[in-house]
Amino acid sequence: MSDTRNTGGATWRNNPSASSSAYDPWAQPELFRGVLTKRFFAFLIDLLVLSIPIILAVIFITLFGIVTLGLGWFLFWLVSPFSVIWALIYYGMSLGGAHGATIGMRTMDIQMRTWSGERPYFLLGVVHAVLYWVSVSVLTPLVLVVGLLNDRRRLLHDIVLGAVIINANVPAPNVVQTSRV
User: Fold this and answer.
1) Which residue has the higher pLDDT, 117 or 109?
2) Judging by beta carbons within 10 Å of its beta carbon (0-12, 13-18, 19+), is residue 157 exposed, middle or buried?
3) Cα angle vertex 120, ends 115, 123, to 5°?
4) What is the pTM of this model?
5) Which DSSP letter does residue 101 get?
6) What are phi and psi of 166, to 5 degrees?
7) How much is the average pLDDT of 168-181?
8) Largest CA distance in the chain
9) Which of 108, 114, 128, 149 shows the greatest Cβ crowding within 10 Å of its Cβ?
């Protein structure tokens, strides 16, 4: 199966502009300098941001349980699903937003882009978070080793999704945007 659009004779399999990355670690190494360290600290900041509403919900349920003589404590079962939904919305909205970065990533001055240089979208942010948590839970050493062994400092879930984390303060190269039909 090939792409039959008029792209100057190139199909999706041999179109060099479609298969090449917008971010070359050899041409612009400053895009990837210190990204793994910044990602670690951004992760810690994001954990803090994610935990604040959950801690407030637990405090509210505790106080509500005291006031209702223990009946309100039956709401504690909602904390786990609320935590998952809150995390998915947070990552989807922040990574899929205008900055292409979570609050922690913005603090550390990094951002996520697709392989071709476009801003990520909501679903990519959600899937990125899910793959991150699954890969860290199952393959912890491998995820970190992969980031140390490639030029773009991409982790395993970044490679699977075609995402790149770059320094936000470095001007990105001019990315040729292809029109979608």
Assistant:
1) 109
2) buried
3) 120
4) 0.80
5) S
6) -125, 165
7) 61
8) 74
9) 108
